[in-house]
């Protein structure tokens, strides 16, 4: 393996289509991206999943003979030190890898990351950031948290806003990201208790380029680069948005005209529907980034297939290349005194 | 005016396009639906907005010379007894009307409804229900609350579930509505503090046909007839969903092929895009129904034009015809002892 390349540990056993789809995605990444891959899991199963017998110089298998199943609690993390997600996190802890990707039990991935890697300075609660497309071509918005913290305090949201700002600035290249607080109205007087208190914190934090409340309709508008919310609202939104793409395509199919006009229209539009799906389908983005732990960790969908895993590896590489962790850490001192709650 | 027809008070002064679009919608309803309309507002402005001078036997103007502007607080309700929304509510209170429709200040409409009409038996907090389309043609789901209560206690959500059940049963004709709790996972162990406590209440309430948690992806799936959530999450979702229709159409337009193939495809699909928009656009449903106050009250969008107002009047008529209030009231006794929180 090369010296300075991003080294990415992939939980080969996690996800509905593990290990075969996970491995396919990893192989593609090993060919197309400048990365070293550590496939973590049962060696025999992994080797059986390689469709050709050729060797890949930048893929290595790391043994892990246990798994944490989707129905199991995160207490299993302690009972199964050799679970693939634990072994993958250990690789980051021991500085053998820079990032972990898992499409397995997301609670277990978050738990393992927090327990093994610890949190960055100034961060009480790591958050999962999800990238949504916007109306403006090639412009995305990062929404966080989308599921790590279902009950939040105002200072957690302030920390999410800082992490989102750093991500937007250093990974997405937005010089002064427009940061919004998800809320039910534009006015600062609007919102639930959490939003009202968070609004004040954000207004007074000079490190965060806060521009005000973002309503539901603003998420996809492109008016914001970063939107913060608690993990309950964010998770509901994310899953709703993911489903919308399929719903729209199905309704469109149903509403298309019958007969030859319909066939013609469908034929002409077929390739474009695919492009459309790519823009509205969140899965294309590879997964959520767990921000706030001392290591890059991508939480992919349980339903991830090879393309999602490939995209997740690319996302991890971008986060590594742009030194997201170091940036968050360097701002940690500024956070703490400004969080009275 | 006829004796047994639904009598609907329309706040002619509320909304971005008031009074002209409000009045157009009301005139259409007066022609196409079996209703009597009471147009509430400034008589001169209303009369000037009638495009022809013909008389409508089932439209009456009721004077109200003040308005509550969008930027004003709801304290203005008490300072302006002659505000159109107050006068409209008074008509219901005095049994001169069965329902109120307003596209004006939604907080003022809710406040006036609660203050003037009072709450139904067993209901602590009225909720706004919004009807979403689903993947299944002609099947809708009612989501509540979508904005009346941003901080909720578990028993409020239990009350929303009961009101949604009654609405689904009597207005939408679903014999045993499938009721869900909006949450971040299917398991009863998932959720924030509010969802966890509400899950227990719903499980133990025999009047509510609760079938479990609904995730974000389930909202449009057609698996549920009623979904309950707090008004913060519901409002964010509603506004997100409303925007999605426009976003999809715009992306589709951008992604359509250039040149003659694109023109042909666009031409063929044009009428179908309109049908598609109707299915995904919430505005087509006319607005949200404020459930739990002792009167039918429809909160329409500020941006409502004539078709939305027409749909809102139809929605009000359905609620009146199906005696939604009487049904909720008759279940009130069953609610109170089952709400320990």
From TrEMBL, chains A, B:
Keywords: Acyltransferase, Cytoplasm, Lipid biosynthesis, Lipid metabolism, Phospholipid biosynthesis, Phospholipid metabolism, Transferase
One Pfam family in the UniProt entry: FA_synthesis
Subcellular location: Cytoplasm
Molecular-function GO terms, alphabetical: phosphate:acyl-[acyl carrier protein] acyltransferase activity
Keyword Transferase: yes
Catalytic reaction(s) noted: a fatty acyl-[ACP] + phosphate = an acyl phosphate + holo-[ACP]
Xref: InterPro entries: FA_synthesis (IPR003664), Phospholipid_synth_PlsX-like (IPR012281)
EC primary class: transferase
EC number(s) given by UniProt: 2.3.1.274
Pathway: Lipid metabolism; phospholipid metabolism
One GO cellular component term: cytoplasm
Main location: cytoplasm
Function statement: Catalyzes the reversible formation of acyl-phosphate (acyl-PO(4)) from acyl-[acyl-carrier-protein] (acyl-ACP). This enzyme utilizes acyl-ACP as fatty acyl donor, but not acyl-CoA.
Matching PANTHER family: FATTY ACID/PHOSPHOLIPID SYNTHESIS PROTEIN PLSX (PTHR30100), PHOSPHATE ACYLTRANSFERASE (PTHR30100:SF1)
Protein name, as recorded: Phosphate acyltransferase
Gene for this chain: plsX
